Amino acid sequence: MTASPLLFDRALHKARLDRAAPDYLSADFLKRRAAEDVVMRLETILRRFPVAVDLGSRNGAFSRALAASDAAQKIDVLLETDLSGRMLAGRDGLRAVADEERLPFGDASLDLAVSTLALHWTNDLVGALIQIRRALRPDGLFIGALFGGATLTELRQVLLQAEDEISGGAAPRVSPFADAIDAAGLLQRAGFALPVADVDRVKVRYGHPIELLRDLRKMGETSVLLDRSRKPLSRRVLLRALDLYVERFAEADGRVPATFEIVAVTGWGPHESQQKPLRPGSAKMRLADALGVVEQSAGEKPV
């Protein structure tokens, strides 16, 4: 087996999270949205999850959303983990510094694992998902949220254009993200049963694109690509990119949008009680008969 290519500088990512920790609360609106969505999903599931973990908890948005919901009664123990110890500081509850790429849990030790807007920074997402699946007990549940492919599409476009115009070439400045189809496939590859993925597309409007860059810094979501240019973005390129952002994307009132796509994924630890697809050829009725239509021939099969 070959190792997955390294895309992200995890040490730099931890440093960015440490830097963001003091001001994270002022820009945690996407984290809160994703956490509240996870809690709503838990509310619809009629079972208990005695031991749960929140991976990449940041400032505890999931635990706060859970505390405000009847779903809190379904969980006896919640452990919050994060790559950044500073993100975990200053609040009650069970907390542990842990790397999502090297989870410290034994096999079949958890009933529920959640992760909101953290796993997209892992170098081997499938590997991280496999670790989560192994840590779940049979019929344990994983609910995650990752940034999807359309996230920051406006910023990505203007940075590439501005750098190409001024420098004669452009380096990647925005992280690549998986789309919903990819995310469901990744769960399946990791061995989860009944994988499901859906998308929540959020448009955040700013008075000026510089405010978006400030929010990304406060979130700890600035680029940590290993293949990034080691030369800082010049002031000239940045100003050109901001001008392009306004020119291309400003709306009627002068404000500019930033697209964030949140891909929510759900998967279960395999268990014999779960529904399974029927074997090919086991149907007891033709589809045309079930639909009440006349079957039309597609022609002779090729020899």
Secondary structure blueprint with pairings:
Layout: H1 10-20, H2 29-43, E1 51-55, H3 61-67, E2 77-82, H4 85-88, E3 94-97, E4 110-116, H5 125-135, E5 136-147, H6 153-167, H7 180-189, E6 193-206, H8 209-219, H9 235-249, E7 256-268, H10 287-291
Parallel strand pairs: 1-2, 1-4, 2-3, 4-5
Antiparallel strand pairs: 5-7, 6-7
Helix pairs in contact: 2-3, 6-9
Helix/strand/pairing class, anyone? alpha/beta
- Give the overall form: globular
Mean pLDDT score: 90
Largest sheet: 7 strands, mixed
- Tell me the Rg in angstroms: 22 Å
* Topology-level CATH name of the domain at 10-152 and 176-202 and 258-274: Rossmann fold
Topology, number of strands: 7
- Order of secondary-structure elements: HHEHEHEEHEHHEHHEH
In DSSP terms, counting alpha (H) and pi (I) runs of 4 or more, how many helices? Answer: 10
Helical percent range? 25-40%
Tell me which CATH architecture of the domain at 10-152 and 176-202 and 258-274 applies here.
3-Layer(aba) Sandwich
Query: What portion of residues belong to β-strands?
Result: 15-25%
Which spans of ≥5 residues are poorly predicted at pLDDT below 50? none
Ends apart, CA distance between termini: 39 Å
The CATH class designation of the domain at 10-152 and 176-202 and 258-274 is Alpha Beta
Query: In which order are the strands of the major sheet placed?
Result: 3-2-1-4-5-7-6
CATH superfamily name of the domain at 10-152 and 176-202 and 258-274? Vaccinia Virus protein VP39
Describe the fold and architecture.
- It is a single chain.
- This protein is of the alpha/beta class and 303 residues long.
- It has a domain at 10-152 and 176-202 and 258-274: 3-Layer(aba) Sandwich (Rossmann fold), CATH 3.40.50.150.
- Helices cover 34% and strands 20% of the residues.
- The chain is built from ten helices and seven strands.
- It has helices at 10-20, 29-43, 61-67, 85-88, 125-135, 153-167, 180-189, 209-219, 235-249, 287-291, and strands at residues 51-55, 77-82, 94-97, 110-116, 136-147, 193-206, 256-268.
- Helix 4 links the parallel strand 2 and strand 3 (94-97).
- Helix 2 (29-43) crosses helix 3 and helix 6 (153-167) crosses helix 9 (235-249).
- The longest helix is centred in the first third of the chain and has 15 residues, at 29-43.
- It is globular.
- 36% of the residues are buried.
- The model has no long low-confidence stretch (mean pLDDT 90).
